[in-house]
Amino acid sequence: MSWGFLHRLLSGVNKYSTGIGRIWVAVVFIFRLLVYIAAAENIWKYEHDEFECNIKQPGCENVCFDHFFPVSHIRLWALQLIMVSTPSLLVVFHVAYRENREKRHNQKLYKSPGEIDGGLLCTYLISLSLKTGFEIVFLILFYKLYSGFKVPSLVKCDIRPCPNTVDCYISKPTEKMIFLYFLVVTSCLCIVLNLSELSYLIFKYSIKCYRKRYIRKHQ
Amino acid sequence: MDWGALHTILGGVNKHSTSIGKIWLTVLFIFRIMILVVAAERVWGDEQDDFICNTLQPGCKNVCYDHFFPISHIRLWALQLIFVSTPALLVAMHVAYRRHEKKRQFRKGDQKCEYKDIEEIRKQRFRIEGSLWWTYTSSIFFRLVFEAVFMYAFYFMYDGFRMPRLMKCNAWPCPNTVDCFVSRPTEKTVFTIFMIAVSSICILLNVAELCYLLTKFFLRRSKKAGSPKHHPNHENKEETKQNEMNELISDSCQNTVIGFSS
């Protein structure tokens, strides 16, 4: 069980997505997942070992690290990727449900089980809203936990058992900041894609409904 | 999900590239991605652990390392490879879109649509002309731009491509100007020069492919302008050749954008 599993799940979702949805999947795979695995993971690998405080007091470094990094950036990033990818599964489940229904009743109930209309449209819109919601929640979480998206090179710590205010140095702060900004930019891009897809679908199906009503009136 | 997945995604595009494009892809996978994963990552693996400063002042090493290596070579290469590989997907997406449109026409029962069934649309090769030609050429152009930008970023950040053995650092909290020693400087210099050389080769290949496409485009235009009467046999031969290139998009769409299946 690893990121390959998520990759395979989302490849299945791709089949039932709109064009914008496929671009979203490509952005998530290449600019978020691949960057995470190929580059970002290694930057944060030894963050605790390389976190150094100007004191010999045992326990002070541990306590200060825990205070400044309640949840490490990289773990939050991983959680964000998982939470943001999962709503797409709602669509896959709904399509599977439709296909099962057709098998049980042994007749063609839908034009095509994968076509986005009716109930599947609602599921799709809900999944888009959830994805956008999760993206925004995680961005706010990052912002609140770390007071902005900056990574300072020095933090001052005076928690017990540190005997006084101690200087603690974070490793690779510039590199971490660059990748944090990269994460924020790709998150924002994904939010924009989700909102565009939402507007596109709502617009498309409003026009469809309007046309049907217009034809009925004239008949 | 790792570089292997990128290989699967781009492998589909490979079938539909020009010969120069195929050479470019081979160079990318063997001389850049494979070298990065198999060798370069190990050379830079212990970069901070073995970065030693001649001081016992806590924090001095961290600060000096951060000052001299704002972003590690290895991460910059990984980003460069990701950005340089992505434009190829533009072509795959365009073909997927065209195919989708043809399928829609077919389902509506459009009489203009000359296909007998959906399978034929899937296997049908589209000509690389018109908007698709522009997409293909733009993807090569973007590749060139990304390569150039990253090479410049390397040169700018590290003052050339050489890794010095010794760096002098006086950033706070270092008490004075302190000597800091980089681990494996010669090996790192060798790999940096190797990666830059391969980047340059990739730039040349992209420029060659761009020139080839432009030459073909202008030749085709001059032929059309010069011979207004259409010779069906001659045109068919040309179409077959073009369709070899177009085989790309049909299959790559299935493998890449539509399914992302391995």
State the gist of this model:
Chain A: Residues 134-201 form the Connexin cysteine-rich domain. Chain A is mainly α and 219 residues long.
Outline the structure in words.
The complex is a heterodimer of chains A (219) and B (262). The mean pLDDT of chain A is 88. Chain A has helices at residues 3-14, 19-43, 47-50, 60-68, 73-85, 88-105, 119-145, 173-218; strands at residues 52-53, 154-157, 166-169. Chain A has a 3-stranded antiparallel β-sheet with strand order 1-3-2. The N and C termini of chain A lie far apart (58 Å). Chain A contains 8 helices and 3 strands; from the N terminus they run H-H-H-E-H-H-H-H-E-E-H. Chain A is mainly α and 219 residues long. Chain B is built from 9 helices and 3 strands. Mean pLDDT of chain B is 80; it is low at 247-262. Chain B is elongated, with a radius of gyration of 25 Å. Chain B starts with a helix and ends with a helix. In chain B, helix 1 packs antiparallel against helix 9 (232-258) and helix 7 runs antiparallel to helix 8. Chain B has a domain at 19-48 and 74-107 and 126-164 and 186-223: Gap junction channel protein cysteine-rich domain (de novo design (two linked rop proteins), Up-down Bundle), CATH 1.20.1440. Chain B has helices spanning 3-14, 19-43, 60-68, 73-85, 87-108, 118-123, 131-158, 185-226, 232-258; strands at 52-53, 166-169, 178-181. In chain B, a hairpin with an 8-residue loop joins strand 2 (166-169) and strand 3 (178-181). Chain B is mainly α and 262 residues long. Chain A binds chain B through residues 2-4, 6-7, 10-11, 14-15, 19, 22-23, 25-26, 29-31, 33-35, 37-39, 42-43, 46, 50, 52-55, 153-154, 167-175, 178-179, and chain B through 1-3, 5-6, 9, 41, 48-49, 57-59, 61-63, 65-66, 69-72, 74-75, 78-79, 82, 85-86, 89, 93, 96-97, 100, 173, 257-261. Chain A: Residues 42-75 form the Connexin N-terminal domain. Chain A: Belongs to the connexin family.
